[in-house]
Structure formats: C-alpha cells, structure tokens
Design goal:
This is START domain-containing protein. By secondary structure, this protein is α+β, with helices and mostly antiparallel strands. It has 10 helices and 8 strands. It starts with 7 loop residues before the first strand and ends with a helix.
Length: 327
C-alpha cells in the first residue's frame, strides 16, 4: 500500500512447546479464532499448486469503537525441515487479484496490505541456551530446553488516520503485540499437553514445492520455495535492540496486561487539539517587578540610552556602530 510504514522485527521463545506445536497454532485457520482475539474472521480461498501457496481472507477487528475493521487478502507459503525440526511461514498481499476474484470485499471494512510477513520457528539448543548467548536486553529470556525460538518480521499498512504517524501507531500497539505473543505461547503449550500438532496444509505445500511454472499468473520469484530467503536480516546494534527484542519473560495473563493504548493516544491527540487554540488565544504573561519598579527601570534605561547616543556622536566615525548597538 501507499505510505511509509515501518518494517517490524521481533523474536521470542516458547517454553515447553516444539516448533511443530507453534507452527500448528499459527497455521490452523479453524482454531485461530479460538485464541487470536484480533481476528473477526478467517476464510481459506483455496490452494494454488502451481505457485505452491494458498489464499486467505482475513478480517481484523480494530478494537476501537467506531473504527472499522481491516480486511486482508493474502497468499501464504509454508516449508518445513523434518531433519532440523524447523518451520517457515511467509505471507504477502502483493499480486492478490486472483484472491479478490474468489471472494468479494467486505463493504464495512478498510482494505489493508501486508507486503511481507514471515516466521522462522526452530528448536532451542539441547540443554537450553547458554546465558552468555542470551539477548543483552533480556538476559532471562534464554531459549529453554525443549522449547522453541521464533523470529518474525512484518510490513503492514493498516491505513491509519493521516494525523497519526506510523511510529506513534507502532508504539501504541506494542503492548498488544506482547499480549498476542503470550497468547500464542499458551496455545502452543496447550496443543502439546493435548498431544495435538496437526498440520492442515497439503504435503506438497510443505515439501519444497516447485517454483512457479511458466504458465503461472504469478510473477516468477515473487512467491517461491526459498522461504528462508524472504526473512530480512534483523537490525543489529544496541540502538535497535529495544525494538527488535520482545520480552521473553512476560507471563501476565491477557486481563492483566494494559488495555490497548491506541484509544488513549487518540483521546490525547483530541485533547491536545482542543488545548492548542486556547493556549494561542491566551496572552503570555510572566511574573515581574511592580508597576512602579517597571516605570523606574524604563526611566533608567532611557537615560542610559541617551547617554550612549551622545557618546557615539562625540566619537565621530564610531557613531554608526554605537547607534546600531543601541538599536
């Protein structure tokens, strides 16, 4: 979509759940509505074997009264490595005209785009991650033995109001992202306890599907099988670690987390917009000496300026410089 929107990076650990459990929780559309409260509906739009992908229609709630939901038509591609127990998920809303032909838009929703989203899920090291290798900003978020490590990126344009900068929107939604991560953790752990880790996509979609054929209506290279290559390298350096690292030790429940601050931001902007005209209309006043003292000060200053002018005339060629200094 149009507009300069930030690319988000994140990583987090999931204890007591294998990569397959995390992947199953992320990719099973029949169950995502049970745990992901940001979704209003999820509708599969079919499998496209030539491209090795499937189409999805997703409706996301805004969570704010009078703000319409956002609708997304996107392709999803998957891959797995049974040997390494690694899973990849990539999705994009680019070149999705065929998906629009499969399902009509929701007239009450605002179209949104996700130019690229991807997840890389892999097992934690055997015995757990060494503390020396843990992220500096989260030394207690080490990848535990028997758990999973998830790295993700997304480039979303939800078309916010023009007066709301993308950075403000990102900061306002940060707690909601942490909330979502914790809920995903709980879902993956529940699947493990139940002994469930089903994969709902065809086997050919996971096992190195062929690249788009010449007859495919999708541009070669835009949807491919090398999903790992779609994962941009995360930013490095201390300056970006605060945005890149999701806290790995947060265990608060959904009800204990702060409410979505987006509404508070909008309310604050509205109050600010109302206060600015009032502030401009009021004359600026500052504390100072009494009226008599002010009059005396002005008289003293006038006498000093008159003396400087007389002195400037007396010095001849230096007069212009002196007069300028008085002015």
């Amino acid at each position: 979509g149009a507009g300069l929107m930030p690319v988000t990076f994140g990583e987090f650990n999931v204890s007591d759940a294998s990569p397959r459990h995390v992947f199953s929780a992320l990719t099973d559309p029949s169950r995502t509505l049970d745990w992901d409260t940001s979704l209003a509906s999820v509708a599969p739009l079919g499998h496209f074997r030539e491209e090795g992908v499937r189409g999805m229609n997703i409706l996301l709630t805004s969570g704010i009264v009078f703000v319409p939901p956002r609708e997304l038509f996107e392709w999803m591609a998957y891959n797995e490595s049974e040997k390494d127990q690694e899973y990849w998920l990539a999705y994009t809303s680019l070149e999705n005209e065929r998906l629009h032909a499969a399902r009509e838009r929701d007239a009450s929703a605002v179209p949104m785009q996700n130019c690229l989203g991807a997840y890389w899920i892999r097992p934690c090291p055997k015995g757990g991650e060494l503390h020396s290798n843990c992220p500096p900003s989260s030394p207690f978020g080490c990848c535990p033995d028997g758990g999973s490590h998830v790295v993700y990126t997304q480039h979303v344009n939800v078309h916010p109001p023009s007066f709301l900068p993308p950075r403000v929107l990102f900061d306002a939604s940060w707690y909601r992202q942490i909330d979502w991560v914790n809920t995903l953790r709980g879902q993956a752990q529940m699947l493990k306890r139940r002994g469930e880790a089903r994969l709902v996509m065809p086997d050919w979609m996971l096992k190195d599907a062929l690249a788009p054929s010449p007859s495919s209506r999708t541009s070669p290279g835009s949807l491919g099988t090398s999903i790992a290559r779609l994962m941009p390298k995360p930013p490095s350096g201390l300056a970006s670690s605060g945005l890149f690292e999701l806290p790995g030790t947060i265990t608060a429940s959904r009800s204990a987390l702060p409410p979505l601050p987006f509404a508070a931001v909008l309310a604050g902007l509205a109050v600010l917009a109302a206060l600015i005209p009032l502030a401009l209309a009021r004359p600026l006043r500052r504390r100072g000496p009494s009226a008599a003292a002010s009059q005396q000060s002005r008289q003293h200053r006038g006498g000093a300026e008159e003396a400087l002018v007389k002195d400037a005339h007396a010095r001849g060629s230096d007069s212009e410089e002196a007069l300028l200094s008085v002015a």
